[in-house]
Structures are given as C-alpha cells and as structure tokens.
Amino acid sequence: MPNYTPPLDEVLFTLREVTAYQELNSLENFSHVSEDLVEAILNEAGKLASGPIAEINHSGDKEGSIIEDGLVKTPIGFKDAYKKFVDGGWNGISFPENIGGQNMPFSLGLSVNEFFTSANMAFSLCPLLTSGAVEALSAHASDELKNKYLLKLVSGEWTGTMNLTEPQAGSDVGSLTTKAIPNPDGTYNIFGTKIYITYGDHDLSENIIHLVLARTPDSPAGTKGISLFLVPKFIVNEQGALIEKNDLRCSSLEKKLGIHASPTAVMLYGEKVGAKGWLVGEVNQGMRCMFTMMNHARIDVGVQGLSIAERSYQQALDFAFSRKQGKKIGAKSKEAVSIIEHPDVKRMILDMKSKIDAMRGLILTTGVYCDLGKHHSDEQKRNLYNELVDLLTPIVKSWCTDIGFDSASTGLQVHGGMGFIEETGAAQFLRDSRIAPIYEGTNGIQALDLVFRKLNQSGGLAVKYLFNDIKKLILDLDSIEDEDFLIIANLLQQSLDAIEKSTDWINSKITEDYDAAASNASLFLDSFGVLLGGYYLSKAALVSYKKIEEEKANSSFYKNKILIARFFSEQNLPKVMNSLISIKAGSSALNSVDFKNFGA
Ligand SMILES: Cc1cc2nc3c(=O)[nH]c(=O)nc-3n(C[C@H](O)[C@H](O)[C@H](O)COP(=O)(O)OP(=O)(O)OC[C@H]3O[C@@H](n4cnc5c(N)ncnc54)[C@H](O)[C@@H]3O)c2cc1C
C-alpha cells in the first residue's frame, strides 16, 4: 500500500493565492504568523500524519475498536499515536493562548486536519469532537466550568463528545427525550440513552467530557425546550483531580460499514442515581450552544471529503503508473503500457485531482472567512465574513463529502479488481468516506438549511457578494487572449447566469410552494458547489498564468493549474447549466407519484 504524502505545496498555493489570506496576515491577532512559520507547522504536521498516524490506518480498520467487560479499547497503536498528537500540541493548534492553544488561524488548523484525516480518518474523529466541545464551552460555559475543563480539553489530555442523537431523534433533534432534573446545589441529574456517540468511550484519555442535550422539567416541546449539559465520565474536584465515576456508561459499540477504529457508542446516562451534569449556557438555549459546536464541526466534516479524496487520488495515481495493461492504441509497440496511458484512466485521475483542488479552494476560503469574521478590526467586515461563513458551511459540508465518496469510488475503479480487494486499501477509503454525507446533519438537511435559511439571510448579502466576486473574476479572465481562458470565462459566465436564475426561481418558491423548493434543494446546493469549485480553480489558473508570464517560467505546476481549471470547467460547469432545467421543472411529477402503489 503506497504511503501518504501530505500535499504541502498544494495547500500553501491555495492558502496564499486563492483565499483572502493576505488580508488575514494583516490582522493584529495573527501578526506572529509568518509564512515561514506556516510552512514549518504544515511540515511538522505532515511528518506526524504520514508517519505514526498513517501507519495504523489499515490495521486500525481491520482490528476495530472493541468493548470488553464494559471497557472500550482502541486498536493497537492508537494510544501511542494519540500521545504523540497531544505531546506535539496539535489538539490546540487554532485555539487562543489563554486557554492553552497555539493561537494559529482556524484556516491553518483546517489544513493540519486535512493531513491527519487523510492519514487516518477514524483517528482524527477524536480531536474533531474535542475541538467542537472546546468551541461550545468557550462560547457559552460559566467561568467556573471553563477554568475546570478548557485547558485539559485544549491540550487533548481529556477528550470531548457531542450527544444529540437518540433512537427516535436523529435529524429531528427536537424530539429528544433525555431528562435533566435539577438538584438543590445547581447541578442536574441526567437520565436517558444516546446512540451513535463518536468516541463516547475509549482508552486514549483518562477523562471524557460529554456535552449532552437534554430537557429540564416543564420545558417547551421541540428544539425550544432543549438545554446543554456538561457530563464528565469522571467527576472532577476543585483541584482538577478525578474523584468518582459518574453514573454513565457505554453499553455497546455499533458494528458499522467503515471508520472501524472510531468507537461509535450507545451511551446510557443515569441508570442508578442520575449522571451528574452542569448546565452550559442558559436553560432552553441548548440548540444555540450546540450550533456553535456544530458549525465548525460541519466544516471539519467537509474536510473529511477532501482528505479521503486526496488519499484515494494519491493511491490511484500510483497504481495507474505501476499497473501495466493493454496496448496504446495507434502505437507501434506491442508492449503493455501503464494504464495511465489510457484516456479513460487519465479522465478518472484528472476528475479526482480537479475536484480536490476545487474543494481545497472552497474549504480554505471558508476557513479564512471564519478567521476574518472573528478577528477583523472593522465590524462591518466581520459581519460580512460571518454571513459568508454561514452561507458556505452547508455547501462545504455537503458538496465536499459527496465528492469524497465519489472520488473514493473513482479511485477504487482505477484499481480494477484490485480495488475491490481489501489489501490495497482503496476499499477502506470508500467505506470510511460513506459516513460523512450522513453525520453532522445529513446532506439533505444541509441543502434545506442553505435554501430556507442561508440564501436570504440578511437580505442575501453573502450570495450577492459571491456572485459579484465571480463577475469580477470573469472580467479578468476575459482580458486574457488565450484559448484556455476564453473557454473557462465563457463556461463560468454561463453557469453563473444559470445559478442566478435558479436562485431567483428557488426564492420565488420558498414561501409559496415548500415542496417545489425543498425537492430541488440538494440539486441546487450541488450546482452552487460546482460553480464555486469552477470559480476557485479559475482563480488559481489566473494566478498561475501571471506567474508564468512574470517569471517567464514554464513550471508544470502552474501550467497544470490552467489545464485543471479548463478540464473542470468543460466537464462540470455544463452540469450547472443543465441543472436549471431540472430545478425549474419543480416537483409536480414527484408529488404526483403514489409511492404506496409502486408494486413489488
Ligand atoms: C458513525 C456515526 C457516528 C455518529 N456520531 C454522532 C455523534 O458523535 N453524536 C451524535 O449526536 N450523533 C452522531 N451520529 C448520528 C448522526 O448525526 C445521525 O445519524 C444523523 O443526524 C441522521 O439521523 P438518523 O440516522 O436518525 O436519520 P434520519 O433522521 O432518520 O434520516 C433518514 C433519512 O431521511 C432524511 N430526512 C429526515 N428528516 C428529513 C426532513 N425533515 N427533510 C428531508 N429529509 C429528511 C435524512 O436526510 C436521511 O436521508 C453518528 C452517526 C453515525 C452513523
């Protein structure tokens, strides 16, 4: 199985040339973040990812996490790798220094996560959930809770979980029934069952801090009556020492399609006296608190799509050079050639690569907007960037995770029969990638969020800003007298026109015809993602063109960026134009079908 090579040059190019990174560099909060420092950090993260963490990916998949006598054990090597991860300070890379973090930009943290997730998606889930817990506690917990828990969560000494799902409450979180009964001392006793809890129990850290959604007595029905509680596995005294096991346990682990090394736990709270919990934020404000946790987690899950696609691509490319099969049509030689010589295999490889570059552009741009939205000195700009993050988050989550799975499938296809055999690892990428479109809010729910909430938030400020940016780029592309750029500009313009029309159509249905808007939401999100992908690739192509011109260099890296943009534009942007036909078709056929009488 080929090794994983962290794509350092690609990440640096995207950060510096495609995103608004220069603006971020000028912020006071990041004045210490020099280009050299960024490169050094990525280099070190890459070493740990491609070494000890990648090494236990395949074995972790085969062995899986297990539960024995009530204790959850991660596969061989995970404890060791986690210790190296924590000792290196990677858990707190993007958190502020006052809570023990390294105060690096969130966008840089996303690239670090990309490396760890490509190396081992099941491993990287543990820090992903811990980061979410840190976000929620930092924003909403009392000083007392912050002082007690944040430092150890940021360092990774303790880990965090997110407990929303119950057997009857999945996408509809509002139907959860876990109870929180108040005690006279201000704490609560938690009673209920949570399912599918990622790293709900494990042996990587001495304590696990569960963030649990539950209802207090007499709370209103639905999401308005949900509160958030901190429920530690071991209760912690004033000095920070673990004093007593809380009344909670993992009763079983799920057997699942992929990410076998990541323990997915059924958690029982309050079998005896009640699990002791502390309120985070205010009563009935739990969803608001949880959204703080989930928003960044959704971007992190989008990164999983990118990471798996990158890993699958690297392996497929390697295989395509080493596997010899068939002759080159039209060549004199009767020798078998590497399959990379065949146009259909080239197509598959370039399809993966172009989508990877597009996803990285989208993800890192969103990450930089997160940083600017938090730290920019100008309030108006902060608002604008936060609007952009809100709009882009469901697209990052859904578009990238769908591509992650598709690319893992394409990578497997490049291997032929060997892809279906577990030994190559291509099959593991396919299995692992399949969860990402499901958790952190299914992709269908993300599409509804985009259409019904984000599109018109603040009068559609973010959408207008993005469309305007794309128009400006098209003018720049148009000014270049070169066939590649004429083609790219023309296709980008036509797909922008199509999305503008789709947006108008969707907007006209939102209030008057829910079904028509809802049934097209996923297609709309996908088309929006493709348009943005084309935009970021075109930006990369334009920068590359200028670099070649200025430096009079014909570097293949830059030349390839132009070809990648043209290939993606020709192969994918026409789908955006066609989607307008499907979207405008509405849902009359769909809604006329009698699903009960399809017949056997
Ligand atoms: C491996 C794994 C790890 C997980 N980790 C965690 C975790 O750490 N913490 C946690 O709390 N949860 C976790 N989950 C749960 C996960 O978030 C849920 O599975 C997910 O939110 C979907 O809920 P569900 O499975 O009940 O599906 P359902 O909600 O039953 O959905 C089934 C289908 O119906 C669609 N659907 C449902 N409602 C609507 C609607 N209103 N409109 C349109 N379509 C709809 C969905 O999109 C989906 O396609 C995990 C799940 C898995 C499998």
Keywords:
600 residues, alpha+beta, Butyryl-Coa Dehydrogenase, subunit A, domain 1, Butyryl-CoA Dehydrogenase, subunit A, domain 2, two-stranded antiparallel sheet, 58% helix, binds flavin-adenine dinucleotide
Helix percentage: 55-70%
Strand content: 5-15%
Q: Specify the structural class.
A: alpha+beta
CATH topology tier name of the domain at 8-154: Butyryl-Coa Dehydrogenase, subunit A, domain 1
- Ligands (ions, cofactors included): flavin-adenine dinucleotide
Q: Helix count?
A: 20
What Rg is obtained from the alpha carbons, in whole angstroms?
Answer: 24 Å
> Residue ranges: pLDDT <50 for 5 or more in a row?
none
Looking at the overall shape, the CATH architecture of the domain at 8-154 is Orthogonal Bundle
- Principal-axes geometry comes out as globular
Task: Name the CATH superfamily assignment of the domain at 8-154.
Answer: Acyl-CoA dehydrogenase/oxidase, N-terminal domain
Mean pLDDT: 96
Span between N and C termini? Answer: 44 Å
